[in-house]
Amino acid sequence: MEHLYNYSLEELTEYFKSINEKPFRAKQVFQWLYQKNAFDFQEMSNISKDLREKLEKQCIIDTFEIQEKQVSSDGTIKYLFKMIDGNLIEAVLMRHDYGQSLCVTSQVGCNMQCAFCASGLLKKQRNLTAGEMVNQVMAVTKDTGIRVSHVVVMGTGEPFDNYDEVMKFVRIINHPHGLAIGARHITISTCGLVNMIERYSNEGIQTNLAISLHSGKWLSSCQRAMTCQCRCGTMLPNWARFTLCGRSALMISSSTTLRMPQSSVLSSDVSEDISGTCRHETTLRKQGKAGSSASMR
Predict the structure, then answer these.
(1) What residues contact 280, with CB distance under 8 A and at least 6 apart?
(2) What is the pTM of this model?
């Protein structure tokens, strides 16, 4: 059986060609899945009965089984989903004044072993497919009846250790004929896989990136790596300044890139705020030009 949530529109179009159906039917089905939240082929009223029956025999619109659901007093909902293979994953719906944000899992378990994170208690069992990440969004939509407006890939797993599937997931939920979740409303988190950060900066998408600077040792190594890349004139994300308090995250936009001149360095000023929380303010500056630094929030 073909799991339709695992298909991009382009892939679905090719699939329809392979079963001798007109390509425009793929767009219709894609819109039924994501714009009209159809969970049954019989709901797709502008598709012929014969095609609906064919799809029922060959394809599946599967949403995960909700194994457990916890609702907090502020409206936050934590889901424990059971997948088809029996593995359990979590997703969390958070209610904000700017919309409904869903925290999505990208792996079963995690091998990164970040000291502050419980995800590493279970070693990585496998990567999730793009369809299984989409499925989390659709399962929450089906359960609550609300539209998820923001997605953060900050659940269990290291997204950049499952890079290709995460990028495919982002493109499916961002597609204008799909869920049409704005790129600026999608954030991917990483514990700091520098080679993947560089690859991500060249994707040409406007999604956000959050980097967890969870140890001084990692921060130091990341600075050295970025400084080296700057001096070599490597194409880097157009970020120049960030502030971190405690375990807050660095927000990066990959919408544009900036070729840094050889005179650029990455400097770090570390100060203590009044609560004793470590604050890192890192700025890309041009040597010899005080105060001339680009910034992105």
Answers:
(1) 213, 219, 242, 243, 244, 268, 269, 270
(2) 0.75
Give the model's pLDDT for residue 121: 78
CA dihedral 116, 158, 166, 247 (to 10 degrees): 30
Query: Among all chains, which residue has been given the structure tokens 């190594």?
Result: 221
Backbone angles phi, psi at 272, to 5 degrees: -105, 130
Length of the chain: 297
DSSP secondary structure string for all residues of 89-116: EEEEEEEETTEEEEE---EES-SS--TT
**CA distance to 120, 215, 217, per residue, from 159 (Å):** 13, 19, 21
Pairing of strands 208-212, 257-259: unpaired
What pLDDT sits at residue 270? 31
212-228 tens-digit pLDDT? 765 444 555 555 554 44
Average pLDDT over residues 273-285: 30
Full strand arrangement of the beta sheet holding 241-245: 241-245, 278-286, 264-272
Phi, psi of 175 (to 5 degrees): -60, 135
